Amino acid sequence: MIKNFFIIMMILCSFAFAETYRDVSNVSYPHTASSTYSACYPYKVSDNIYNDVYYDAWQANGYSGWVAIELPVFEKVAKLSINRVYYRPKDIVFSGSIDNSTWTDLYSGTSPNDTGWITYDIANPGYYKYYRLNVLNTWWDYAIIYEWELLASEPSRESLTDPVPEPFSLVSFGLGLLAVFYAKMSRDRRIVKQ
Ligand SMILES: [Ca+2]
Ligand SMILES: [Ca+2]
Q1: Ligand 1 center to residue 105 CA distance, Å?
Q2: Cα–ligand 1 centroid distance for 101 (angstroms)
Q3: Is residue 15 part of a domain?
Q4: How far is the CA of 24 from the centre of ligand 1 (A)?
Q5: Using CA atoms, how far apart are residues 114 and 34, in angstroms rounded to an integer?
Q6: What span, in angstroms and rounded, lies between the C-alpha atoms of 82 and 120?
Q7: What CATH number corresponds to the domain at position 137?
Q8: Which of 3, 20, 60, 124 pairs as cysteine with 143 (C-beta 3.0–4.6 A)?
Protein backbone atom coordinates (compact mmCIF):
# COMPACT_ATOMS: atom_id res chain seq x y z
CA MET A 1 0.00 0.00 0.00
CA ILE A 2 2.83 2.38 0.90
CA LYS A 3 4.49 1.63 -2.47
CA ASN A 4 1.26 2.50 -4.35
CA PHE A 5 0.91 5.70 -2.33
CA PHE A 6 4.40 6.89 -3.26
CA ILE A 7 3.80 6.09 -6.94
CA ILE A 8 0.67 8.32 -6.80
CA MET A 9 2.70 11.05 -5.06
CA MET A 10 5.39 10.93 -7.78
CA ILE A 11 2.74 11.23 -10.52
CA LEU A 12 1.14 14.20 -8.72
CA CYS A 13 4.51 15.94 -8.35
CA SER A 14 5.37 15.44 -12.04
CA PHE A 15 2.07 17.13 -12.99
CA ALA A 16 2.77 19.97 -10.57
CA PHE A 17 6.18 20.73 -12.08
CA ALA A 18 5.02 20.48 -15.71
CA GLU A 19 3.61 23.99 -16.26
CA THR A 20 0.55 24.22 -18.43
CA TYR A 21 0.04 27.28 -20.60
CA ARG A 22 -3.21 28.78 -21.86
CA ASP A 23 -3.61 31.14 -24.81
CA VAL A 24 -5.10 34.33 -23.35
CA SER A 25 -5.79 35.91 -26.75
CA ASN A 26 -9.37 35.78 -28.00
CA VAL A 27 -10.89 36.91 -31.26
CA SER A 28 -13.70 38.73 -29.38
CA TYR A 29 -11.33 41.11 -27.54
CA PRO A 30 -10.54 44.55 -29.02
CA HIS A 31 -7.65 44.49 -31.50
CA THR A 32 -5.90 47.45 -33.08
CA ALA A 33 -3.10 47.92 -35.60
CA SER A 34 -0.88 50.62 -37.01
CA SER A 35 -2.51 50.02 -40.41
CA THR A 36 -4.61 47.37 -42.11
CA TYR A 37 -4.40 46.11 -45.65
CA SER A 38 -7.71 45.22 -47.33
CA ALA A 39 -9.78 42.75 -45.21
CA CYS A 40 -6.75 41.59 -43.17
CA TYR A 41 -8.19 42.94 -39.92
CA PRO A 42 -6.18 42.98 -36.66
CA TYR A 43 -8.49 40.47 -34.88
CA LYS A 44 -7.40 37.83 -37.40
CA VAL A 45 -4.25 37.20 -35.32
CA SER A 46 -6.54 35.64 -32.68
CA ASP A 47 -9.16 33.79 -34.76
CA ASN A 48 -7.29 30.44 -34.81
CA ILE A 49 -7.43 30.37 -38.63
CA TYR A 50 -4.17 30.31 -40.57
CA ASN A 51 -4.56 28.73 -43.96
CA ASP A 52 -2.35 29.59 -46.90
CA VAL A 53 -4.38 32.68 -47.82
CA TYR A 54 -3.37 36.22 -46.92
CA TYR A 55 -6.78 37.22 -45.50
CA ASP A 56 -6.49 34.68 -42.63
CA ALA A 57 -4.03 37.15 -41.12
CA TRP A 58 -3.59 40.70 -39.98
CA GLN A 59 -1.56 42.50 -42.61
CA ALA A 60 -0.12 45.98 -42.41
CA ASN A 61 -0.52 48.32 -45.32
CA GLY A 62 3.26 48.35 -45.73
CA TYR A 63 6.49 46.58 -44.88
CA SER A 64 6.31 47.27 -41.13
CA GLY A 65 3.64 47.78 -38.50
CA TRP A 66 2.19 46.60 -35.22
CA VAL A 67 -0.88 44.70 -34.06
CA ALA A 68 -2.20 44.88 -30.47
CA ILE A 69 -4.84 43.34 -28.24
CA GLU A 70 -6.68 44.62 -25.16
CA LEU A 71 -7.36 41.85 -22.63
CA PRO A 72 -10.29 42.08 -20.17
CA VAL A 73 -7.95 41.28 -17.24
CA PHE A 74 -4.23 41.49 -16.49
CA GLU A 75 -2.31 38.47 -17.71
CA LYS A 76 1.30 37.43 -17.29
CA VAL A 77 2.27 36.27 -20.79
CA ALA A 78 5.42 34.16 -20.47
CA LYS A 79 5.62 32.83 -24.04
CA LEU A 80 4.71 34.25 -27.44
CA SER A 81 3.96 31.91 -30.35
CA ILE A 82 3.48 33.20 -33.87
CA ASN A 83 2.52 31.38 -37.03
CA ARG A 84 4.27 32.25 -40.28
CA VAL A 85 2.57 30.92 -43.41
CA TYR A 86 3.43 33.04 -46.39
CA TYR A 87 5.03 36.47 -45.96
CA ARG A 88 7.37 36.20 -42.99
CA PRO A 89 8.23 38.75 -40.31
CA LYS A 90 11.94 39.32 -39.67
CA ASP A 91 12.81 41.67 -36.80
CA ILE A 92 10.07 41.77 -34.16
CA VAL A 93 9.44 43.49 -30.82
CA PHE A 94 6.80 42.20 -28.40
CA SER A 95 5.66 44.63 -25.70
CA GLY A 96 3.21 44.86 -22.80
CA SER A 97 1.38 47.81 -21.26
CA ILE A 98 -0.93 48.37 -18.32
CA ASP A 99 -2.50 51.56 -19.69
CA ASN A 100 -2.09 51.39 -23.49
CA SER A 101 0.28 54.33 -23.19
CA THR A 102 3.59 53.26 -21.63
CA TRP A 103 5.01 50.10 -23.18
CA THR A 104 7.60 47.68 -21.83
CA ASP A 105 9.54 45.63 -24.37
CA LEU A 106 9.34 41.95 -23.39
CA TYR A 107 11.05 40.30 -26.33
CA SER A 108 12.97 41.51 -29.33
CA GLY A 109 14.77 39.39 -31.89
CA THR A 110 14.94 38.09 -35.42
CA SER A 111 12.39 35.55 -36.58
CA PRO A 112 14.01 32.98 -38.89
CA ASN A 113 13.15 32.83 -42.60
CA ASP A 114 10.93 29.75 -42.40
CA THR A 115 7.27 28.86 -41.90
CA GLY A 116 5.06 27.32 -39.20
CA TRP A 117 4.85 28.02 -35.49
CA ILE A 118 7.70 29.51 -33.50
CA THR A 119 7.65 30.17 -29.74
CA TYR A 120 9.63 32.80 -27.88
CA ASP A 121 10.26 32.66 -24.13
CA ILE A 122 9.85 35.97 -22.32
CA ALA A 123 12.67 36.38 -19.82
CA ASN A 124 10.93 38.90 -17.56
CA PRO A 125 7.16 38.54 -17.91
CA GLY A 126 4.82 40.83 -16.01
CA TYR A 127 1.10 41.42 -15.59
CA TYR A 128 -0.18 43.53 -18.51
CA LYS A 129 -3.57 44.21 -20.04
CA TYR A 130 -2.33 45.27 -23.49
CA TYR A 131 0.06 43.33 -25.67
CA ARG A 132 1.57 44.51 -28.94
CA LEU A 133 3.66 42.82 -31.60
CA ASN A 134 5.69 45.15 -33.78
CA VAL A 135 7.03 43.84 -37.08
CA LEU A 136 9.98 46.09 -37.90
CA ASN A 137 10.73 44.52 -41.29
CA THR A 138 10.10 41.30 -43.20
CA TRP A 139 11.92 38.63 -45.18
CA TRP A 140 9.59 39.36 -48.08
CA ASP A 141 6.84 41.87 -48.75
CA TYR A 142 4.22 43.24 -46.34
CA ALA A 143 4.23 42.83 -42.55
CA ILE A 144 1.83 40.02 -41.72
CA ILE A 145 0.93 37.85 -38.73
CA TYR A 146 -1.34 34.91 -39.46
CA GLU A 147 -1.87 33.90 -35.86
CA TRP A 148 -0.42 34.43 -32.42
CA GLU A 149 -0.79 32.78 -29.06
CA LEU A 150 -0.18 34.75 -25.89
CA LEU A 151 0.69 32.01 -23.43
CA ALA A 152 0.27 32.42 -19.68
CA SER A 153 0.68 29.81 -16.97
CA GLU A 154 -0.22 31.93 -13.95
CA PRO A 155 -3.71 33.07 -12.90
CA SER A 156 -5.18 36.26 -14.34
CA ARG A 157 -5.71 39.34 -12.15
CA GLU A 158 -8.68 41.69 -12.16
CA SER A 159 -6.59 44.50 -10.70
CA LEU A 160 -2.90 45.09 -10.04
CA THR A 161 -3.67 46.22 -6.48
CA ASP A 162 -5.20 42.82 -5.62
CA PRO A 163 -2.82 40.20 -4.24
CA VAL A 164 -1.43 37.72 -6.77
CA PRO A 165 -3.73 34.66 -6.67
CA GLU A 166 -2.12 31.39 -5.61
CA PRO A 167 -2.09 28.84 -8.43
CA PHE A 168 -3.62 25.49 -7.48
CA SER A 169 -0.68 23.40 -6.35
CA LEU A 170 -0.75 19.63 -6.75
CA VAL A 171 2.33 19.53 -4.49
CA SER A 172 0.38 20.98 -1.56
CA PHE A 173 -2.54 18.70 -2.46
CA GLY A 174 -0.12 15.72 -2.38
CA LEU A 175 1.37 16.83 0.94
CA GLY A 176 -2.15 17.08 2.36
CA LEU A 177 -2.86 13.53 1.21
CA LEU A 178 0.41 12.42 2.83
CA ALA A 179 -0.62 13.99 6.16
CA VAL A 180 -4.02 12.25 6.03
CA PHE A 181 -2.32 8.94 5.15
CA TYR A 182 0.11 9.11 8.12
CA ALA A 183 -2.67 10.19 10.50
CA LYS A 184 -4.65 7.13 9.43
CA MET A 185 -1.58 4.83 9.73
CA SER A 186 -0.80 6.00 13.28
CA ARG A 187 -4.48 5.63 14.24
CA ASP A 188 -4.52 2.07 12.82
CA ARG A 189 -1.36 1.26 14.82
CA ARG A 190 -3.00 2.52 18.01
CA ILE A 191 -6.04 0.34 17.30
CA VAL A 192 -3.78 -2.74 16.74
CA LYS A 193 -1.91 -2.05 20.03
CA GLN A 194 -5.13 -1.87 22.09
CA1 LIG B 1 -4.89 31.70 -31.18
CA1 LIG C 1 -5.65 34.04 -38.20
Answers
A1: 21
A2: 25
A3: no
A4: 8
A5: 25
A6: 9
A7: 2.60.120.260
A8: 60
